[in-house]
Amino acid sequence: MSKVLIAGGTGLVGTRLSQLLNEKGYEVVHLSRKKGTNSIYPTYVWDTKEGTIEAGAFDDVTHIINIAGAGIADGLWTDSRKKLLIESRTQTTALLAKYISTLAQKPKAYVSAAAIGIYGDRDDEVLTESSPIGEEGFLVQCCKEWEQAIQAAATKIKIRTVTIRIGIVLSTKGGALPKMLLPLKFFTASYFGDGQQWYSWVHIDDVCNIFIKAMETEAMQGVYNATTLHPLTNKDLTERMVKALGKRALVIPAPTAALRLGMGEMADVVLNSNKVLPQRLEKIGFSFQFPTFEEAVKDVVENGK
Q1: Closest among 234, 103, 193, 88 to 149, alpha carbons compared
Q2: How far is CA 198 from CA 76, 256, 270, in A?
Q3: Residue 154 belongs to a domain with what CATH number?
Q4: Is residue 154 situated within a structural domain?
Q5: Is there a contact between 224 and 162 (Cβ–Cβ < 8 Å)?
Q6: How confident is the model at residue 37 (pLDDT cuts 50, 70, 90)?
């Protein structure tokens, strides 16, 4: 039986990924900052400050998936928060690489999360894995340092490494969607600024299956965009969400000035435009279970995913 070690296994993607791997017959273990007394998966503690990982974490592990990282929109981007956002990604990556490089029996693959924020604010430009990365903004800086850490890890551990640039994940368990659904209780829905910025989204199950595909497919290596083939503008996405869920709501804008006032630089998360396509996934024939936004949003809402 294959055994998968997941760093960040209790987060939004990690939780669902653990379930799907378990259903496929994989043995799943987690790395966490503290012992999870309620976890259904064996949990090993790691400490990036001390540079330690609990003994036994890598025993019989055939694949490693790293989705660790502090939530990008969980707090205002103060200098200390920015430092945490970067280090929670780069230091965990470096710590894993340090341990993997010493293993007598190395895993078959190392699969790491990354993010489409690396492209920066690009208006209507179509972005694929071969597009140059962005040049300005904290999101670009954070994602760039993250991927540099992944590349350094790949050089050190000398095993097949795959980097998954995740788009906007649709789930009712976390991320952007619950915040978008909340105003519907008051018969309103908001888009941000002029609403013309492109949002590249992906259903929670599809992004998890991309990780599984990367883990299982020996031909996969390097960077892959984890977004569907059908990005939408923010306004279009909001209007489609209301219609798909059969709600009556007044769709109104949240002015850019108000967003900047309330969120500061973090407003980039909702105002940046990323029209991203999964070109490399297309080439290997990856099939999305939820290719259209309407069926994706209905599924996560109706099934509580």
Answers
A1: 88
A2: 23, 15, 10
A3: 3.40.50.720
A4: yes
A5: yes
A6: low
In a domain, 11, yes or no: yes
Q: Which residue's entry shows tokens 């083939």?
A: 229
Degrees, nearest 5: CA angle 246-207-66: 140
Q: What's the pLDDT tens digit per position in 118-153?
A: 999 999 999 999 999 999 999 999 999 999 999 999
Q: How far is Cα 97 from Cα 102, in angstroms, rounded to an integer? A: 9
Smallest Cα–Cα separation from 273: which of 209, 199, 211? 199
Decide if 80 is inside a domain.
yes
For the segment 35-54, the average pLDDT, to the nearest whole number, is 87
Give yes or no for a contact between 68 and 7, defined as CB atoms under 8 angstroms apart. Answer: yes
pTM equals: 0.95
In a domain, 41, yes or no: yes
- Structural domains counted in the chain: 1
CB atoms closer than 10 angstroms to residue 104 = 4
